[in-house]
Amino acid sequence: MAIRRLRGRTLGLLAFGDIARRAAEKAQGFGLDILAYDPYVDADEMSSRGVTPVDFGALLERSELLSVHAPLSEETRGLLDAEAFAAMGEDVILVNTGRGPVIEEAALLDALDDGTVAKAGLDVFETEPLTDSPLTDREDVILTPHVGWYSEDSRRDVIRSVAEDVRRVFEGEEPRGRVNPGVAWV
What is the CATH number of domain 10-149? Predict the structure, then answer.
């Protein structure tokens, strides 16, 4: 696979929550065209952040780089299956830092073999912990054990933010790092 510049390429974001929004902000500095699919986020919200809202089919068809941030639900389990990979162009670079079971790994292996997916970076897996998997022996796949976020600075920040939220709760305040911000705080 040839090394290409990022400027002018198309990054697709599967889901558009907080992490995907931060990724979009960073990617804009590299001159990427950014698409996002998230049926639960208003299109105006995406557009206001410089991201083009698209449907799932367009995301698959147009993304040269696809970053998966989707939560795991019955709706998203196996969302990237053989049919989804068949809808993609060739030489897609796929990164999953969301939830492993969003991708059917057998279908991903086929897509790697046929060139639909040129490279994959996976921080999460269909079954965790990853043990005996054909993904581990591939030169076109980078695997990290659910710690792709890690640095000493990030670890310190996570500990601090959790401690601050615990303090907020004990003082009767709303925590900032809620798991489900769409549900009213009681």
Answer: 3.40.50.720
Determine whether 163 is exposed, middle or buried from the number of CB atoms within 10 Å of its CB (0-12, 13-18, 19+): exposed
Token reading at 174? 């709303």
d(CA 60, CA 65): 10
Q: What residues are labeled active site?
A: 99, 128, 146
User: Which phi-psi region, left, alpha or beta, contains residue 73 (left: φ > 0; alpha: ψ -120 to 50)?
Assistant: beta
Residue with tokens 């960073």: 26
Give the mean pLDDT per block of 10 residues along the chain (186 residues): 85 96 96 97 97 98 97 95 97 96 98 97 93 93 88 93 93 83 67
CB-CB contact of 3 with 55 (8 Å): no
C-alpha 99/C-alpha 102 separation (Å) is 6
**What's the pTM?**
0.86
Structure tokens at 2: 């040839």
Relative to beta strand 10-14, strand 33-37 is parallel
Tell me the C-alpha distance between 152 and 161, whole Å.
14
CA pair distance 68, 2, nearest whole angstrom: 23
